[in-house]
Amino acid sequence: MHHAAKVRATRTPRTQHYLMCCPSHFEVTYSINPWMDPAKPVDTALAVTQWERLVSLHRELGHRVELIDPLPGCPDMVFAANGATVVDGRVLGARFRNAERAAEGPAYLEWFRSRGYQVHEPVQVNEGEGDFALAGDWLLAGTGFRSSPEGHAEAQEFLRRPVIRLDLVDPRFYHLDTALTVLDGDEIMYYPGAFSPGSQAVLRRLFPDAVVVTETDAELFGLNAVSDGCHVILPEAATGVARRLRERGFEPIGLDLSELLKGGGSVKCCTLEIRDRPTAG
């Protein structure tokens, strides 16, 4: 917290490159996380409208958004962040734990391959940026529900960044991107209760100045957010997170993605960051 006052006036947005997928086939017909209830009706048209607002907002903030064609029969493909992890222009494909999402990994990998990216077809289970977050030089890696520790090792070898394993213990926060957000470089926010005691200790040691978020705000998917180093887009209901971000000099922007939340995803889940150029370090 000691450096917050110093950085308050110096937040500078970075122009970012994203890949997104329209939820034109979005529905909830199965349940692979605690948020999915096939008994609850889903308004696909409303999901598309909410998603289009997110795309527009990214573009209004100066970011480049590219689109991948949604596949029929892949209702979760809108959650593009799970489709790959891109660091320094190297693309680690995703291999999903659940059969319902298996077809998404090859579709995303082919999108990158056809555009000349250096791609790696995964052998082990990893669910892309759902469980990988680049924080400064480190690749934070979640495990416990989806991505495997073996997938972490595969990521370290291909992406050439040191991996920090973080064990997720609460099924509500089944992916790392529901429990932790990278705000700027190695500045993060997270909900401690989503992690094992050992992983909480690692986070405290590596990120002593992190923004610590309450269970209430985590349940509102306040950590499934996207930051460009200045603007932070997050679910509008997560007002506590927004307040904490303002204290740190960030500019939070609340958005309603309530239909997509029925699939267990929000702002970050819909936004895959393409890190084309080698990043510092």
Describe the structure.
This protein is of the alpha/beta class. 25% of the residues lie in helices and 22% in strands. It has helices at residues 4-7, 44-60, 104-113, 149-159, 197-206, 215-219, 239-247, 258-261, and strands at residues 17-21, 64-68, 84-87, 90-93, 118-120, 132-135, 138-143, 163-167, 180-184, 187-190, 211-212, 226-227, 231-235, 251-255, 272-273. The protein has a 3-stranded mixed β-sheet, with helices on one face. A 3-stranded mixed β-sheet has the order 3-4-5, sandwiched between helices. A hairpin with a 2-residue loop joins strand 6 and strand 7.
- Uncertain regions spanning at least 5 consecutive residues: 1-7
How many helices in DSSP terms? 8
Fraction of helical residues: 10-25%
Strand arrangement, major sheet: 2-1-15
Coarse morphology = globular
C-alpha-based Rg, rounded: 17 Å
The total beta strand count reads: 15
SSE succession = HEHEEEHEEEHEEEHEHEEHEHE
Ends apart, CA distance between termini = 24 Å
Task: Characterize the largest beta sheet: strand count, sense, and whether it forms a barrel.
Answer: 3 strands, mixed
- Multimer state: single chain
Counting helices, strands and paired strands, the structural category is: alpha/beta
On the 0-100 scale, what is the average pLDDT?
94
Could you tell me the strand content as a percent range? Answer: 15-25%
